[in-house]
Specification:
13% strand; 9 helices; alpha+beta; elongated
């Protein structure tokens, strides 16, 4: 029975660990080298140092909010002292040892000289601080919201970079497949050609050109793979492929609606709004120094020269009015910073509108261009199939293959630009379409 129990326990511990290992490897290029866009984004975010640093900034800001809440609680301190002395004149101990009064040797009996002990607890509570603690908490909360907005901005920028690299690699893979197909057709055509001496020169040129196009496609694929690995922050010697729908996308939205979405969802604008809120709170915090502090303090201690038999208790209510010289200068400084934040927010709004307009124009253009090139590509494919069935290849067949490849590559480039423009517009408005 015990053996069965320990076997079941070992299985319960091993299965989650195995599942965790598989889950971690599922998104690794070493196990699954054909990444989807979603998996690529996940991998890229998990390995991006800026994104991970932004996550830590949120943790730091959350702890600052907790610290600001602690200001409303009473502050306690425990202290114990042991003092050995030899005084010709009375003294007060430093603040680090509770400011206790020590008489000189003449005022004490011989058995009470040279040593003093004390232990106590002190509690301090601010009953009123001119709103400083409340404003400090509000500033910490506004700072947390600002950090969260910056986190979203870093995330969106990282996702945009990954999408661009992903679509570039997807385009390069299709381009290589097309170039290989064209090269195979060219080899098949050339074996059945019967041309004269002069036409052989042109035939050799066309074959060499198609081979060079294939080499260029391979080189572009290597560069696209490297860019994808950099975006994912993976080892640069890894081999990686991506898979996904490689076809034109259409978005039927008007520019005014996109601008409204951008003003609502862009994290950069939210961060600017929270920065303005921080400046407003900083002004209130500077002005709060004009008001007095109302402080309640209580303490209990045991002390004595050779034991802790003596007992002290006290409760104090204090009013403290600071008289700072820099109150007016700080107020002017905070108002200037508030004006800066207002101007910065207006500049960000204008910049966002420009980004939305530019990416929207790109998407509209490449939507129409991709559809147009798609129809041309289909027509060329159909005509090539008809020509292959109708007659034996001649010199013009190699020229037709060149045109066939250029048309296909042009169509694939249009798809890539179309997808990239959509990703750029999603970044510009701050959400997916």
């Amino acid at each position: 029975m015990k053996k069965l129990f320990w076997l079941c326990l070992a299985l319960c511990l091993a299965l989650p660990a195995a599942a965790q290992r598989e889950y971690g490897l599922r998104f690794s290029s070493l196990i699954n080298d054909e990444l989807t866009l979603e998996n690529a984004i996940r991998l890229g975010l998990e390995n991006n140092s800026d994104f991970l640093a932004a996550q830590q900034e949120i943790i730091i800001a959350e702890q600052k909010v907790k610290e600001a809440k602690f200001l409303f609680l009473p502050q306690f301190s425990l202290q114990g002292t042991a003092t050995w002395y030899d005084l010709d004149y009375p003294m007060v101990l430093p603040d680090s040892v509770a400011n206790r009064f020590i008489p000189n040797n003449d005022l004490l009996s011989d058995d009470m000289k040279h040593q003093f002990f004390g232990a106590g607890i002190t509690a301090t509570q601010y009953l009123y601080a001119g709103g400083r603690f409340r404003n400090t908490l509000k500033m910490a909360e506004a700072n947390l919201k600002q950090v969260q907005s910056k986190y979203e901005a870093v995330k969106n920028a990282t996702v945009l970079n990954i999408k661009k690299s992903f679509f570039r690699l997807l385009y390069a893979q299709h381009n290589v497949e097309l170039a290989e197909k064209v090269q195979q057709k060219a080899g098949r055509y050339s074996r059945s050609l019967h041309t004269g001496a002069w036409n052989k020169v042109k035939t050799q040129y066309l074959l060499s050109r198609l081979t060079s196009l294939k080499s260029e496609a391979d080189n572009e694929l290597q560069k696209a793979q490297l860019a994808m690995l950099v975006s994912l922050n993976k080892e640069l010697n890894s081999q990686i492929k991506v898979r996904g729908d490689f076809k034109p996308v259409e978005v039927e939205l008007d520019l005014p609606r996109l601008n409204l979405w951008a003003m609502e969802f862009r994290p950069e604008l939210k961060a600017a709004i929270y920065a303005l809120e921080l400046d407003n709170l900083a002004i209130d915090l500077a002005l709060s120094r004009r008001y007095p502090d109302l402080i309640l303090t209580g303490s209990y201690e045991r002390l004595g020269f050779d034991n802790l038999d003596d007992e002290n208790k006290q409760i104090s209510l204090a009013v403290r009015l600071p008289l700072p010289y820099n109150l007016s200068t700080q107020n002017a400084q905070r108002k200037a910073e508030q004006k800066q934040s207002t101007l910065r927010r207006a500049a960000i709004e204008d910049s966002i509108r420009v980004q939305v307009a530019e990416n929207y124009a790109d998407l509209v253009f490449w939507q129409a261009e991709a559809i147009s090139r798609q129809q041309t590509w289909r027509d060329v494919q159909k005509l090539l199939s008809q020509a292959e069935r109708a007659a034996a290849p001649d010199l013009t067949a190699l020229e037709a293959l060149d045109a066939y490849y250029q048309t296909g590559r042009s169509y694939y480039e249009a798809i890539r630009q179309n997808l990239t423009a959509k990703a750029g517009l999603e970044w510009a408005i701050g959400q997916d379409l």
